[in-house]
Amino acid sequence: MARPAEPVLVEAGGRTLSLSRLEKVFYPATGFTKGEVIDYYARIAPVLLPHLASRPLSLKRYPDGVQGPFFYQKECPSPRPDWVRTWESEETQDERAIRYCVPDDLATLTWLANLANLELHPFLHRIQDAKRPTLVAFDLDPGPGAGLIECARVATRLREWLATVHLDAYPKTSGAKGMQVYVPLNTPATYPETSALARTLAEGLAAAYPQEVTAHMRKDLRRGRVFIDWSQNAEHKTTVCVYSLRAGERPLVSTPLDWNEVKRATVEERPEALQFDPAAVLERVRRFGDRFRPVLTRRQTLPRPRPVRKTRRAAPRGTSGAQRVARARRPQANGRSR
To answer: So what's the architecture of 8-122 in CATH?
Structure first.
């Protein structure tokens, strides 16, 4: 058996790190190595790091690559360099407060990749206020018999329904078998509020399109349908970050999409048009920049419920589910985001 290569000293973000086992194959189906994982994260860092800034991170580590055992890790690994930023949560583990990593810089991102943390799962809030998410997340998970194309169709319907309450949304692949749709807020909101909106829309879509959508977690209800997981909008849950690698057979990436791409893929029924490896993602960023940048900058307010009247007329016959959602919730300030 060949001896492992000696550790390599590299500079990342002004820090010197010792990287080990760079030749180790992490994705056997393609020969993609640990060194290539670290290289990808270093090259994508300029657009990735803003999406991680000030967000606590849950780790998913694969020390022997994607075909070996993996483990989730909330606590930031120790020992660790003193320059790794951490944040102590109110959440506890073994009766101790959990201290999460906060990967704000290239050095920390590189250090985590060297620890075989393939996937990046940040929270929807920043450490400055753990009670206030900056977005609403819809996780579209296809059941048996459904796939990326079905997710794309549901994502398009979800976008249309969100438009009825004057909210713009941005799609991305999960990098695995599904998709996510993010609704940026960047204005004051609480998890109960974002969860309520997500659940209302998910259940509304499931009622309107019962053969295509389910809002229930029960796996026996998912066959041939797309499960809209509205429950991701919770203080103690994380979602895979845009530009994160995924630990599948091939090194695919959670990739921001343009809505025209989503529509074209559904028309052509080409799921491969919505799957991107690291090289393809780096080229897309070179051509288009960060298509997910609006999730960081777009300011929108949640629609507020209308006051309940003592007597309410039934919705007129033919009223669509989207119209019912729009009537149930009313945007502030003439319905436009600020």
So the answer is: Alpha-Beta Complex (3.90)
Percent over 70 (pLDDT), the chain:
89
For residue 181, with 0-12 CB atoms within 10 Å meaning exposed, 13-18 middle and 19 or more buried, which class applies? buried
Q: Give the helix/strand (H/E) hosting 36.
A: helix 34-52
Which residues does residue 87 pair with via DSSP β-bridges, in sequence order?
100
**What CATH code is assigned to 135-236+250-306+318-332?**
3.30.70.3300
Please state, in angstroms and rounded to a whole number, the distance separating the CA atoms of residues 75 and 82: 15
Q: Locate tokens 């490896």: which residue?
A: 277
**For the chain, counts of helices (H) and of strands (E):** 8, 16
The whole-angstrom separation of Cα 143 and Cα 138 is: 16
**pLDDT tens digits, 11-49:** 999 999 999 999 999 999 999 999 999 999 999 999 999
